[in-house]
Structure to design on (318 residues):
């Protein structure tokens, strides 16, 4: 019976949720949501384009920033079809296999972003600890291998997740809690034991986000110890200033992630609206805010954006 229902389910659709209690106002929220996606895609696209075209930015720090921008664009593109489908066209159905594909890429790009933040922390450690050997330690080959390891780890760790979901029977509710597919959200709809899924999900989170957050924490402890050994106050401030953008990126990524985890574990008494808003913030805030942070701190990126606006204005007048 379970096998029959399982095979039959593969041809059905899941139902995505909008924002509970605000269903009648979805069309008003469509334009701000669209604007957020435009900011995310445009901002990260400008970062990638600027780093690619400006030879002075062909250094490890900006290579890692380019990887971060690619991960942010990937996250935005993963959620954009279903989010805009709900809020622009009130289209809430998603094919089960399409849901698994979206779930895989969301978790993969999230793991990639976490790994890139670790690489950027190591970059700051080398820049502050061994500034004279920075280019000798972080060669282009090291950067490429680091990127390959980050990508391989994310792909391999998340790869079993859709198959673990696929084996489960589903013949009950098809209503998801969010506007996109997440592992824990799809898993709760299963009509069988999900202990294996829960255990593997926990292992995957510990192996990626857990180890990454610990590595970043230890990196900053080492950075602070190194900075405190600098004699001049001006030198200490200058060294710490090089870490501001990365610190903001870490907070932008991990604060919503921790918030989602805490609410999912301890906030079952909270309204569905709180859960949905936190999940949306977890996936939307980093792609939107990271380009803004790095634009403010990087004059080359600011110059590129100004050039784009000037060219657009000239073209419009012509």
């Amino acid at each position: 019976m379970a096998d029959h229902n399982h095979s039959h389910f593969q041809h059905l659709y899941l139902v995505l949720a909008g924002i509970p209690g605000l269903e009648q106002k979805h069309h008003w929220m469509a334009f701000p949501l669209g604007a957020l996606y435009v900011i995310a895609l445009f901002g990260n696209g400008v970062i990638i384009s600027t780093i690619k075209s400006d030879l002075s930015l062909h250094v490890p720090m900006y290579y890692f920033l380019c990887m971060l921008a690619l991960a942010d664009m990937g996250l935005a593109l993963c959620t954009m079809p279903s989010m805009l489908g709900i809020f622009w066209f009130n289209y809430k159905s998603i094919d089960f296999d399409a849901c698994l594909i979206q779930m895989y890429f969301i978790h993969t790009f999230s793991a990639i972003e976490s790994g890139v933040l670790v690489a950027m922390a190591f970059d700051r450690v080398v820049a502050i600890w061994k500034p004279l050997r920075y280019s000798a330690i972080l060669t282009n080959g090291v950067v490429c291998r680091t990127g390959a390891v980050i990508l391989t780890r994310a792909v391999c760790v998340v790869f079993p997740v859709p198959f673990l979901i696929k084996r489960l029977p589903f013949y009950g509710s098809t209503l998801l809690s969010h506007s996109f597919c997440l592992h824990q959200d799809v898993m709760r709809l299963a009509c069988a034991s999900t202990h294996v899924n829960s255990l593997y999900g926990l292992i995957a989170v510990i192996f990626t986000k857990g180890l990454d957050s610990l590595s970043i924490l230890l990196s900053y402890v080492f950075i602070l110890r190194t900075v405190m050994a600098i004699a001049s106050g001006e030198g200490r401030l200058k060294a710490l200033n090089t870490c501001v953008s990365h610190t903001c990126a870490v907070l932008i990524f991990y604060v919503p992630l921790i918030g989602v985890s805490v609410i999912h574990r301890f906030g079952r008494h909270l309204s569905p609206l709180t859960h949905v808003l936190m999940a949306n913030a977890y996936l939307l805030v980093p792609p939107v805010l990271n380009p803004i942070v790095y634009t403010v701190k990087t004059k080359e990126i600011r110059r590129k954006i100004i050039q784009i606006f000037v060219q657009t204005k000239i073209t419009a007048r012509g």
